[in-house]
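wait is this the right file?? whatever heres the structure
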């Protein structure tokens, strides 16, 4: 890799400061736009409670058991695991 000394660099090759600052601002706004787009596509289904998989079709590992309640899932403790 060629390392240039400051005498070898032409002033025309140096990026002006206002362009350097604008580049950071562009990256910031692009990341915010990307997060906004991802949340727009992913969150409505989660917040509204829409299922991602259709209920009509049964998979090979589906059962006829009823779904556990949120309280049962979050308060269950298998003592022997500890």
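ok assuming it is, sequence goes like this
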């Amino acid at each position: 890799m060629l390392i240039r000394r400051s005498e070898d660099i032409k002033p025309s090759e140096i990026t002006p400061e206002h362009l350097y600052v604008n580049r950071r601002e562009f990256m910031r706004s692009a990341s915010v736009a990307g997060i906004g787009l991802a949340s727009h596509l992913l969150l409505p289904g989660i917040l509204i409670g829409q299922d991602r998989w259709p209920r009509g079709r049964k998979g090979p590992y589906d059962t006829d058991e009823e779904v556990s309640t949120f309280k049962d899932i979050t308060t269950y403790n298998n003592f022997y695991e500890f």
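The mean pLDDT is 77. so i think its the right one actually
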